[in-house]
Specification:
This protein is mainly α. The protein contains 6 helices and no strands.
Amino acid sequence: MELTRTEFEQMLETTCQSVLQYLFDRKSSLHQSRITSKEQQGNSELTIPKQPTNQSLQELLDGIMAAAESGTNPRHPGYMQYMPTGGLLHSVLSDIVSKCLNKYTGFYFAAPGLVDLECNVIRWLCAIFGMDLDSGAFGILTSGGTASNLSAVLMARNKLLQP
């Protein structure tokens, strides 16, 4: 379904308002909801309609935000689990740009300008941490802490267990 600019702007505004309400205006600020799995299963009524429905975007977003209320709230100051999985609102803005550009940066030919940008960011970080760029210090940018940790473990394994 192709969208016009006006349709996309309206959908974007509706989505942003739902996200802002979830992040800043919700009543639940606990680091973990107190809902049991049995209660959650009772609240989940996923039915696949045989015919397309006229459900509004707002109704869909309301259901998603209600489902998001269960579980942990990594933005809460009491959230002390291993790896915080969210809460960096600045990263939301970069995600919007990244998802809208939808460029694959896994190889140079697909997006040379963005690959160069990533390389420059990595060089900049190396310089901040005093790593000698002439020694071959480099790295990759990952999507989060789990991918970063996995990359570090694999690099350490490969370094220690030479093929």
